[in-house]
Amino acid sequence: MSYEVNGKTIEADANGYLVDHTEWSEDVAKAIAESEGINLSEKAWEIINFLRDEYFNNNGNQPNERNMVKHFKGVWTDEGKVDAKSLYIHFPKGPAKQASKIAGLPETKRKGGY
């Protein structure tokens, strides 16, 4: 599998995750999101950037949904109640896995998924 972005072929594995995370860019993220049927809202980008920051600056940490909710409760103060549904609005096939794919991160090996 691969993605065509700005005239360049970006290689991905059979599940659509990037083979080389250094090829990731916002344009690549948009191409992956399009293939997933996702419209990247401002909050979707916040989730993507949080996952990338955790992975690259916290020893390859890939937060699960519970930890993502905990983080965004402190960030999305205008939302009122922040729960897993708040994340699924942006990534309906699972915020931890689907957002990680769009963020150019490796496939998480946790149970669950799509």
UniProtKB/TrEMBL annotation:
Class of this enzyme: transferase
One MF term in the entry's GO annotations: transferase activity
Record localization: Cytoplasm
Keyword Transferase belongs to the record: yes
Cross-referenced InterPro entries: DsrC-like_C, DsrC-like_dom_sf, DsrC-like_N, DsrC/TusE
Keywords linked to the UniProt accession: Cytoplasm, Transferase
Domain of life: Bacteria
GO biological process terms, semicolon-separated: tRNA wobble position uridine thiolation
Pfam families linked: DsrC (PF04358)
Cellular component terms (Gene Ontology): cytoplasm
Chief location: cytoplasm
Enzyme Commission numbers on file: 2.8.1.-
Entry's family note: Belongs to the dsrC/tusE family.
Role, per record: Part of a sulfur-relay system.
Stored PANTHER family: SULFURTRANSFERASE TUSE
Protein name: Sulfurtransferase
Species this protein is from: Candidatus Thiodiazotropha endolucinida
Species lineage: Bacteria, Pseudomonadati, Pseudomonadota, Gammaproteobacteria, Chromatiales
